[in-house]
Write a sequence for this structure.
């Protein structure tokens, strides 16, 4: 078994979305009982979206949040020399290497987690066939003082998010919802994501932007939104209506830029509040889910879901991570009222 800088061997790999990477690293750290801040980890994972996730990249990411790791080359029969959990590559499908965690190792096989779904058992022979030879292990717990500080940061972020989060029924009445859907229907185009406004498999819906000439009640909607979040000064972007057909979704994401410098996010002035108004509810699926906050909202026509995207310390709040889950049948329409 050799421990060394394994950048050479750690070939590049598919680009993971922030949610899968976050899940994998959370499982790795929880299994290894390594204290860590979910808030800090979420920030690091989403800042790395779009990068190729080699094992050395994971090591660097963990280093950024204060967690030391060591990388090893070893044959599958020698993995018993390391204490699980092992962060590793497996080649489970021809030509496709995926990141996985070896949770436990038995005489006759291993238990592996790939970041989604359940852990699975593999015999020694199956494991040897997919084992890629490189593993990452943690160097143990981080400094306890840092860990305590991080835990405090998580608790504050969670409390602040909880205080800002709400669902207001009847924000719009049914005829207002229908009017907006009617206006939007001539303007839909494939939705885009990120700074570069790219089409992406992360977001498969259609979007339509409505300004005040297209939607005369825009000013009244903005007034209601100011009242809803008790901020008379708020300014807003143009309204954005989204349409999801069957199978369409918006995977886990934040509505704000996770790349902005710590403590200065709101200086960029973007999306202090998200207000999402559901315009229809005659479809199946399409809940808005908050995996870190642990809430799932079933859309009701006319209701407004609202939450603040930043902490009091002006960092993006990781608990604002959310996803528009796939619509299973029918069409979901919703409207983003994003404050500047
Ligand atoms: O459709 C949803 O439930 C979520 C929409 C959303 O997150 C967005 O458009 O940014």
């Amino acid at each position: 078994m050799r421990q060394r800088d394994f950048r050479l061997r750690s070939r590049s790999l598919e680009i993971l979305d922030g949610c899968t990477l976050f899940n994998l690293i959370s499982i790795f750290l929880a299994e290894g009982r390594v204290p860590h801040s979910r808030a800090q980890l979420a920030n690091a994972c989403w800042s790395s979206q779009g990068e190729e996730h080699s094992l050395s990249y994971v090591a660097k990411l963990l280093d950024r949040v204060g967690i030391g790791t060591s990388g090893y080359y070893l044959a599958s029969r020698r993995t018993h020399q390391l204490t699980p959990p092992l962060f590793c590559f497996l080649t489970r499908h021809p030509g496709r290497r995926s990141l996985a965690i070896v949770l436990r190792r038995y005489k006759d096989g291993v238990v592996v987690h790939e970041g989604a779904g359940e852990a699975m058992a593999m015999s020694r022979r199956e494991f040897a066939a997919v084992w890629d030879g490189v593993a990452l292990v943690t160097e143990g717990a981080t400094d306890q003082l840092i860990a305590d500080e991080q835990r405090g940061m998580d608790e504050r972020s969670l409390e602040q998010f909880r205080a800002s989060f709400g669902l207001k029924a009847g924000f719009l009445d049914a005829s207002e919802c229908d009017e907006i859907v009617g206006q939007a229907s001539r303007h839909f185009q494939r939705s885009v994501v990120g700074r570069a406004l790219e089409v992406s498999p992360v977001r498969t819906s259609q979007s339509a932007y409505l300004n005040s000439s297209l939607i005369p009640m825009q000013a009244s909607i903005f007034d209601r939104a100011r009242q809803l979040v008790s901020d008379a000064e708020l300014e807003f972007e143009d309204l954005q209506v989204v349409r999801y057909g069957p199978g369409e979704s918006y995977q886990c994401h934040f509505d704000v830029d996770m790349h902005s410098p710590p403590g200065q996010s709101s200086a960029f002035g973007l999306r202090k509040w998200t207000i999402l108004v559901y315009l229809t509810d005659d479809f199946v699926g399409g809940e808005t889910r908050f995996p870190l906050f642990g809430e799932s909202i079933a859309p009701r026509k006319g209701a407004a879901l609202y939450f603040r995207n930043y902490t009091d310390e002006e960092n993006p709040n990781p608990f604002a991570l959310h996803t528009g889950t796939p619509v299973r049948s029918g069409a979901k329409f919703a409207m983003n009222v994003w404050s500047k």
The helical segments are 18-31, 38-47, 55-64, 124-130, 144-164, 174-184, 218-228. The chain has two domains: 2-142, 154-338.
